[in-house]
Amino acid sequence: MRKTLAIAVGLLLIAPGSALAKRTADFTYQSSGKAVTPGAADPNADGTYEDIPFTIAADDQDGTVSVELDWSNPVDDWDLVVYKKNASGGLDQVGSSAGGPPSTSEATTISQQGTNPVPPGDYVIRANNYAATTPDFSGTVKFTDFAGPPNQRPVAKLKAPKKAKAGKAITLDASGSSDPDGSIAHYRWDLDGDGSMETDGGTNPKLKHAFGVGVFHPSVQVTDDKGRHAYATKTIHVTKAKKKKK
Prior knowledge:
Blueprint: H1 2-14, H2 17-20, E1 27-30, E2 49-56, E3 62-70, E4 78-85, E5 91-97, E6 105-111, E7 121-129, E8 138-145, E9 163-165, E10 170-173, E11 184-190, E12 199-202, E13 206-209, E14 214-216, E15 219-224, E16 229-233, E17 236-239
Parallel strand pairs: 9-17
Antiparallel strand pairs: 1-8, 2-7, 3-6, 3-8, 4-5, 4-7, 10-13, 11-12, 11-15, 14-17, 15-16
């Protein structure tokens, strides 16, 4: 039993941070009856609003936070504002919704910040009794998983001679291609310039091919390990090969 526990603890300690990341738990909230006075929310005026605090822990990774405020009477009017507490203890607005009757709900969503999850910290949901006859309301807060940074487009690079002789194989080289957040997984080639990647190069970044006389615009399509594509094209002038003297 002790050995099993030790192994489990060891695995937990060596697990990568991404494996330990968790999503904040969904929750519901309900009025306590404080916001009995209709009017614009005023921090110095008791009764016009009610605050519901919640926290996103430092190790939580959320993609979105969806906040909804609901009430039953279609003639009532509530407004919803979400704040994040700043370092000085003040409130910075991060979301809001302010419709009007006959709607019986307001909703707002806080989204991840570019390549980062929704910032951790202390938040406040403010339900403002703008023009409601009773102080009763309820609401939900739902969190989604942080999807991580979006897959960046790979960079396709193609080397090829500007001139070639008909019937003589040349090398098309896409080995300089790269992917900023992964690797190049596949190469496909358009050798006749019609836009169709008719030649499958697999994982080989180089292709040897002999062209006939003319001007050709071969292209390579590189695909990264998450399926995103990039393209590069070169122009090759192919002339007739000189006959060897007998």
